[in-house]
């Protein structure tokens, strides 16, 4: 039981605070423990202050207009640069409001409200890190203003640099992650979501808590070495891509809030920076141990 907590993802501190006792049940999971940061540590330059309070369902204020309904029981509204996110229950509870988050994109602060913990008196339960869109929306909105983006891809570190492997769901990210992990020569940062950021002159890549079927998630950060767009194939081959071709492939696997022009403009500019700055290739791979051998040979060339 805690009254405050800090979780860091991609160099961004999510600093939670509440006058009530706050419970963090998911932090028993080693995946999420890896992203927890000591409150005594100096605050990161990039941080988002999140104030937690008990949920009190109320109508959406008239100043907000609806901008999108996600496919995971969530609604997003906007009033200027302030966003309201509502998370509803699943199954028979689809009409039950579970969480709300008010995000001031200009000030970098958020106000979240959720249910009390059963039998805890005034205690609150921290929203699950895996819930979309609260954390991913906050992270994407913050990065959009600071030369960064969240990508639907796997990531692996090899000789001190991280390489990204974008692909749509079910087309090879988890398969390749397992193969590279089994080789013993790659450190897997994640098999589903990776962040990239421009920090000074360096493009960096970061693991996140969000994983897919292979279950890979690690709090890793490394300079970005290149991007390989995945295609399963009967044989292994790697093809260089032009920046324009790669950009067309990168945009569909990047979280871009098209409903908000400032956010989308920032992420598009970052993607153009990626396409102009790192090696971009198509990786047609056979789903066996030879895929890792082919990749290593390309990286050592």
Features:
301 residues; alpha+beta; 18 strands
Overview of the structural elements:
The protein has 2 domains: 2-144, no CATH class; 148-300, Rossmann fold (3-Layer(aba) Sandwich), CATH 3.40.50. By secondary structure, it is an alpha+beta fold. The longest helix is centred in the last third of the chain and has 17 residues, at 261-277. The model has no long low-confidence stretch (mean pLDDT 88). The protein contains 6 helices and 18 strands. Strand 7 (82-88) and strand 8 (97-104) form a beta hairpin. The strands form 2 sheets. Strands 1, 2, 3, 4, 5, 6, 7, 8, 9 and 10 form a 10-stranded mixed sheet that branches. Strands 11-12-16-15-14 form a 5-stranded mixed beta barrel, surrounded by 4 helices. The N and C termini lie far apart (52 Å).
* Backbone shape: globular
Q: What structural category characterises the helix and strand content?
A: alpha+beta
Computed over alpha carbons, the radius of gyration is: 20 Å
Topology, number of strands: 18
How far apart the termini lie comes to 52 Å
Run of helices and strands: EEHEEEEEEEEHEEHEEEEEHHEH
- Estimate percent helicity: 10-25%
| Integer count of domains | 2
* Binned strand content: 35-45%
* CATH-derived topology of the largest domain: Rossmann fold
CATH-defined architecture of the largest domain: 3-Layer(aba) Sandwich
Let me know the largest β-sheet: 10 strands, mixed
User: How many alpha or pi helices?
Assistant: 6
Please state the oligomeric state of the protein chains shown. Answer: single chain
């Amino acid at each position: 039981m805690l009254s405050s907590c800090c979780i860091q993802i991609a160099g961004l501190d999510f600093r939670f605070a509440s006058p009530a006792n706050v419970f963090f049940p998911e932090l028993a999971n080693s995946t999420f423990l890896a992203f927890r940061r000591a409150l005594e540590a100096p605050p990161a330059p990039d941080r988002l202050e999140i104030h937690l309070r008990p949920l009190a369902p109320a109508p959406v204020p008239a100043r907000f207009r609806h901008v999108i309904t996600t496919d995971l029981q969530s609604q997003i509204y906007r009033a200027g640069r302030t966003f309201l996110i509502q998370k509803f229950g699943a199954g028979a509870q689809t009409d039950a409001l579970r969480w709300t988050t008010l995000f001031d994109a200009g000030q970098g602060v958020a106000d979240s409200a959720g249910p009390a913990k059963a039998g805890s008196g005034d205690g609150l339960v921290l929203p699950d890190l895996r819930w979309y869109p609260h954390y991913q929306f906050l992270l994407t909105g913050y990065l959009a203003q600071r030369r960064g983006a969240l990508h639907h891809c796997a990531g692996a570190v090899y000789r001190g640099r991280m390489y990204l492997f974008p692909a749509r769901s079910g087309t090879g990210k988890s398969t390749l992650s397992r193969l590279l992990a089994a080789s013993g020569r790659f450190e897997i940062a994640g098999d589903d979501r990776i962040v990239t950021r421009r920090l000074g002159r360096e493009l960096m890549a970061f693991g996140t808590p969000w994983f897919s079927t292979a279950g890979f998630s690690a709090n890793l950060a490394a300079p970005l070495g290149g991007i390989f767009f995945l295609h399963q194939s009967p044989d292994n081959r790697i093809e260089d891509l032009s920046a324009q071709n790669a950009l067309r492939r990168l945009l569909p696997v990047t979280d871009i809030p098209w409903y908000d022009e400032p956010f989308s403009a920032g992420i598009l500019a970052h993607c153009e920076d990626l396409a102009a700055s790192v090696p971009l290739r198509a990786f047609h791979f056979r789903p066996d141990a030879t895929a890792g051998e082919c990749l290593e040979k390309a990286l050592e060339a």
